[in-house]
Each structure stands twice: as structure tokens, then as C-alpha cells.
Amino acid sequence: MFKKILIANRGEIAVRIIRACREMGVATVAVYSDVDRGALHVRKSDEAYLIGPAPAGESYLRMDKILDVAKRSGAEAIHPGYGFLSENPKFAQACGDAGVKFIGPTAHSMKLMGSKTSARQQMEKAGVPFVPGTSRGLASPEEGEEVAERIGYPVMLKAAAGGGGKGMRLVHSRQELRSGLESAKSEAQRSFGDSEVYIEKAIVNPRHIEMQVLADEHGNTVWLGERECSIQRRHQKVLEEAPSPIVDPEMRRSMGEVAVRVARAADYKNAGTVEFLVDQQKNFYFLEMNTRLQVEHPVTELTTGFDLVHLQIRIAAGEKLPFSQADVGIRGHAIECRIYAEDPDNNYFPSPGKITVLLQPSGPGIRRDSGMYEGWNVPMDYDPLLAKLIGFGTDRQQAIMRLQRALYEYFVAGIKTNISLFQRILGDPDFQAARVDTGFLDRLLAKANPAVNSSRPPEEIEALEKIAAIAAGMFAVLDPASSVGENETAGGAGAAPPAVSNWRRQARSETLR
Amino acid sequence: MVYDVIVGGKAHRLELQRSAGGGWECQFDGQVVPIDALIPRRDVLSLLVDGRAYEVKREQTATDLHMWVGSSRFAVELRDPRSLRSRMQVREDDAGPKKILAPMPGRVVRVLVAENSEVESGQGIVVVEAMKMQNEIKSPKKGIVKKISAIPGEAVNPGDVLAIVE
Q: Regarding the domain with residue range A207-446, which homologous superfamily does it belong to in the CATH classification?
């Protein structure tokens, strides 16, 4: 086993890995940027080194600086977490070259999975199901019509060089195909300088379900069950659960076996995730493989009982998987809420800043993986993920109820968070009935917000307003010192004047002098 | 202490006085409300009203004061009826110059209008970037841009003045 591990990350995931290391008796080395001196991962590690200014490109993405710290501190291995350098084959290679073990797959596997076309070719050989379509560009509109006829409308036209929705067209019928193809091609040409467009069957309202795999360095590869990740916004996952409400044991085994085939075909080592799109008939299609630990790994940990970070470290240290596929069972239900620094009243725009109050939930069935603390200044330079709140129960309904209770206890002031969004999701009848797909969250947000006071009985609102008013007064008399209006209004203890009019007040107080 | 409390668009008269026993006597719109209040930690109030228990959280920003009663948030304004400001407050609303403040820490990316130009209510004035997302800060009213203090490339803190519209 390693004596010392460097964690090339920040935030909740760095803290999560540091905890695993401490549990295993492994010393930890943190790296941090200028604005992260006060970050939790720096406080919790055994050693910490500054690697540069705030922009990730000058700190958390600097392979040379990180490897230099590894050398100086004597770290034998590097855990990359997720994001940053975690899926960068050059970094995995550079670690190997520097004689430091990269806790993850080899550069070769990463490269293979990083390219859409090479992954698809490799996976086709392994007999992995894909969304039906062509893996090469269309030679002519006639070929497009012929393929579309064969796979069935609706179809999706996609730029081969594409990304971010550019050069993509949904086509419902033969009549639309030619014009759709022309506009997709010209958009692809304009956006990527490459007009190659291929065709795929369009999956209407798909679910996004992924399968966790683990592979040791002795040829053992296992699957650990699926995670339902259909609750997304702007292609970003917001809430995940395990198991998926639509996956039965047979489908789980079949998805798991495909995922293991994918991993084997890529000569994959360590923890990885195979993502699938699932259509309404429960057909599943390979989407991509994430060659790292996922943000949502805790729901798998809670429902399988395995600690994925412990296992990642053991595998990297050369140990054999301590269990076989037959030992993997799914028990209970877990749901994860990603707590982001985002303002629900302002289109979920990021909201960095100082956390002035933090009340955190605990109790039965609640796990909290957090990188924040009261008094911390959430920097504006990184991803807005603050913490993950995970609820676990004997079944889905209990997991939901426990999360609702925990969210009621969760309070963050100073910055805005999306905590209220989870109250909406968990309370939604469609969510409770597990009728979800990747369009669920957009549909929910388009509906009126039931948490808005206008939809509640007026007597109830009035009663609460009275409590709010009395509380505001009691705060002012009991704790006037920390009131917002400090020093502005000598006579108005605890008042919260609108800052908009500060200069007018100033002008007025000057005329009064 | 006597306060005018504005919550839910209505003003209420709140009178709070220390009672002989060390507790508080509370009158809300002239009606006596039996309360017991304790601050177990900063910005958290345990309030008992006739046996019903509430945990109320206080959230203050550069511009607002909110009370969270359970999971319900209420914007509250507290005024001292004796102060000049409170009596003048009514006229604050739409007339006069409006400062446009940075709502969050970030970096100014672009300024979208020139000084002395005319803007509509809701028109974008400045673009501020935070956590890799760009946010257009809009004018709260129709008027003339009197001053632009935002400088592209510079960092801003919440409450910093970006521009003034009159």
C-alpha cells in the first residue's frame, strides 16, 4: 500500500479522497491555488502546497507543478478526482514517466475512450449496442433517406466534428430530411470547418442510465449496478439515484455485462463508468465511457456497500479485487442532490461569495460530502458544486422522505444555493412515480413554482408573515450588532435599508449636518 | 422598541418591550402576542409563540433582509418610525437615480452601453462573469446612463456599483 498520496483536485471530492486516505492510514498531500488557501481540502490534508494563481489553467491543470509537488513531498501516487486532469491521457502518461502511480486507467484506455469515433469502432468489434445509424458521414442525400428509412424516423443528423448542439438536426419525416441535411451540413461547415454529417436514430425522451465498473490489474472486471442520471439541466446532472426505478435484475445484469465488455475492450483498469441512453422500450445504447470516479459515486457506495475510493486506491496499489461479481448485491435505495452555488431566482446563475450561515443536516440515512464551511468564501473561479447530500432508505420512497427532511434542515446564507430546487423535484408527482427522462427538469422548471407563496392559503401565509415580522424585530433587539443596516441608521436599529439608495442617504445626511 | 415591519407588501406595527420577568412583551398590530425568543447561534432564532415552536433564520445581503421560517423565505424591511429616512422612504421607489450593483463576486467582461445613452427597463448594461458563466446585469428602469464605473477585466464584489441610471 502507498504511504502517501497527492490529491490533484479541490472541493468536496478532494475532501472525500483525503478522508478515504486517512481511513486507510495513507498520508495526504493537497495542492491549492491562491484563492483556495482557506479551502476545506487544505485544512484536512497532512501536507499542502501552493501551485499557482486562481485560474485552473495556471494551477489545477498544471501537470508540471503538480508532479513537482509529488516529487518534493514524496507522494507515490496521484488521485485526480473528477474534472481537471482526471481524463487527460497526457497527465496519466506524465505520472507514469515520473514514476508516480496515477490512480485511474492507463493513458491508452483514456485515449481510446476520449475519441468518439475510435471508441465506437472498438466497441462495435466488442458487440456493444449503439444507437442505430451510420458511424461514417453520409455520402449523399439518397443515402440519408435510405438509412433513415431503415432505422425509422425520427432521426438525428449530427456533425462528425460536432459538439454543443451545433450541426445537429432532428428530422421527423422523409420530407424534412433533405433540407435538414443541407442546413446541418452548412452549419457544421461554418462551426467546425468540416461538413461531414452522420445520421442516428433519434431517441425521444431518453433516460440517461450509467453502469459502474471496477477492474483490477489482474484481469478481474466487475459491474456494481446502475445509476439513473436523467435529472439534468443544461446537460449537467443535478440529481442521481441508484438503483434506477426502471431497471430490473435481468436488465441490470445485461447492462452490467455490456459495461464489462466495454471495459475489457478498452483494456480498462480501475473505476470507470459506462453511460447508456435508454429508450421508452428499455433498449439501451452505449453513449460513452467516463474514465474516472464520478461525482455521483456515493449512491453506488450506499446501495452496494463498497467504498469506491478505497477500492480505487487498492487497485492502483496492485491488489486484487477483494470480491467477485457474485458478491455484488443491490440493497436499499440512494438519491444524491448536487448542492450548487446557484441562484434559483436568477435562472440558476452561479452565486459565489462568503457563506455567512451554514446549518447542515445529519441523522438517519443521510450522507453529506461537502467542501464548504461557514465563513468560507466560495471562489468565483471554479465549478459551483459545493456539496452532495445523499439520502439512503430501505426503498425509494423512504430515501425521498429522508432527503426532504434533510433539505428542510439544510440552510445556507450569504450565497444562493439550489436547495429549494430539490424540494421541488422530490415533491413532484412525476418524480415520485419515477416518470423521469432527460427532459424532466426543463418541464418542471417551466411549471409554476409551488413553493411560491401565492399558491398557498392566504391565512397560512399571513400567519408565517407574522412570525417573520416578529422574528425580524427580535433579531434586531437581541442581536443588533450584526444587523445589515449597521452604522447607517443610528436610529433604526437592525434596519435593512435598500443599498440602492445609499448615496441618497449620504447626500441627505450631509444636508442635515 | 417600536418598528414598522414591511412583509408581504403590508406594513405592520411591532412593539417589543422587556418584561419585568426578563422576557419580552410583544404587540403585533396592537394585539398582544405571547412570545419567548432565544438566539442559540448567530442568525438563528428559536421563537415560541403560544406553544408553537419556530426556527427562524436571518439572511442579510448587501440589499435585502430575509427571514426564513422553516423553508419559506420572506423579504422583510424593518423601519424605525421615528427616523427621517423611514418617512422619506415612500418616495424612494422609482424616481431618481438608481445604482446598478454587482449581485455576486465576479469579473466584468463587457460594458454594453455608453455613458449618457438612453436605456429601457430590463436592458443589459454590464456583463459579469462568475464560475465560468456570464450574466447580464440589467437596468432596473428606463432612463439615461449617468455613469459607468464597471471596467472590463476588473473584479467586482457584491454590492459594488457598476453603473448609475437616472
A: ATP-grasp fold, B domain (3.30.470.20)
